[in-house]
């Protein structure tokens, strides 16, 4: 029996907060600056997070919680942006990236310098050979005595010892051994300080003197006690103080005077290199900033709410707002920080089509804003971020997902959230509830307070409107599959009572499921004149109703492994949905009569090969078996077609009609179809249901109050 619905507020107007604060954006665009040039040291320190800002994790390694990693982050801004270190001393802007120019960022670390040469072709050849190995190869471009020189490096490595081991291994590599000028040597963080300067331009002559003298060096930016950027020329990249002593005389001679050791390598800094790795064929280079960051240090890239910064490694997406690069768990992370409303422009456009009715877009905006508000105020799940850019939080694909209609819906509901008892609610939503939303017990195996309950959502069927029908057919060779209706010529019922069809085009594909899957091969092909039996006609698989499979016992056992604590059998012979919740979703499943234990019921989706929802039934693949091929081939010989327990009755369509019923038959066979309805966990707002209700003329307020119990719509 379904849980009774709680009484809800019938609000005809939005409650206004008397103490509401306007949304503010606290990171204004700085004055344009030349690429790679420093900005005035008097620039104000970067403010902390802006009011109503959202921090979105784009790259972050949190293990099983969330994992998107990269070794390099390449940024291309639409407008010139400044960036620098954020440390305990403040925000020290040290560099800028010009509009349309690219700059890359990576963690610094122990490397191996293989050698250098002004012969671009020779360096390219060695780099090409080494790229096929396990070592990451980089080529840096410098100038010595007026000539371009290309330095070949491998790494970075996890430790100095790992770099030393790599140097020994690479020395014996056929790609390196015997090539003149190549002598692999581990590098480290010990260096000399050839002076501190007020700008990159002022530091450049000292660096060039060292390079012309045959020394290695970089300009590194750090933050002083007052939070200002300091440009230091660092000479050498040695692995010990003893090795550093060996280059002191040469460095002092080149630069005139004794040089002290550079600051502790643990201090936060940004070292500038010219990276020619990607442009090696043409000898071109682009800026690469190598980062040394402590646990609380960050690199901040100023951005605005008006223009974007493209992140090459994140599918070349562009993002509004600022970007933060740091280290978590010894790996690089990237967080996009931007105002809530601009964040929602992308979220709403990423979650639902921009062509949907305005009221459904508004409902989505309020639900997404409510959810994000809770995350910014309470969550620590993602450590350095409030949310991530996947559906683990809310889909967020940057500026490309924005549109006029979506932005208008967000603007029309600016600041509006759902509250219960004066607090923002975590307004969960999913793609399609399959005609009825979930009860929390069906998702988490526990109650979810008074916010969610199972309610009808008939308008979810909007997802199936205007889709093609598919003929479920049995071929003469015993193959059973699906052909789309626009390729079918229905031949009606023959003398034996069986319905037959043929196709209208040569090489028409017979597919395993009633949908086009580019990554899945067809089962067979039919040509005009070929006949097949029609088992049933079904809708194209969609978010409202779907079919998955057939899965073999082996495939299901592989999927179940690691997702259940139940000891798995050698072979799956039967599957039964043994218990269902208030909406009809599976809360208990038995395999070979034994209950499959999972952490929570919604996990049945992933346990059984990634099902769209847990509102499903199971059908044996053996239910469609031609006892002979006689009928399909047109023979007058007596024949039967076995379709489940009832001849000439479609099992799939019967199962779809019965999904969620209290009856739970034991399904046996050598393969299994899963047939069901809905897409997602089913809690709260159904996106397709909202679309259907908006099509019927309902307002976004009415839509929201249909899916969430005991809430108020509040304008902050």
From TrEMBL:
Keywords: Signal. One of its GO terms (cellular component) is outer membrane-bounded periplasmic space. It comes from Saccharibacillus brassicae. InterPro entries: Bact_Sporulation_Assoc, SpoIID/LytB, SpoIID/LytB_N, SPOR-like_dom, SPOR-like_sf. Residues 104-183 form the SPOR domain. Residues 1-47 form the signal peptide. PROSITE patterns: SPOR (PS51724). GO terms for molecular function: peptidoglycan binding. GO terms for biological process: sporulation resulting in formation of a cellular spore. It holds the Pfam family SpoIID. This is SpoIID/LytB domain-containing protein.
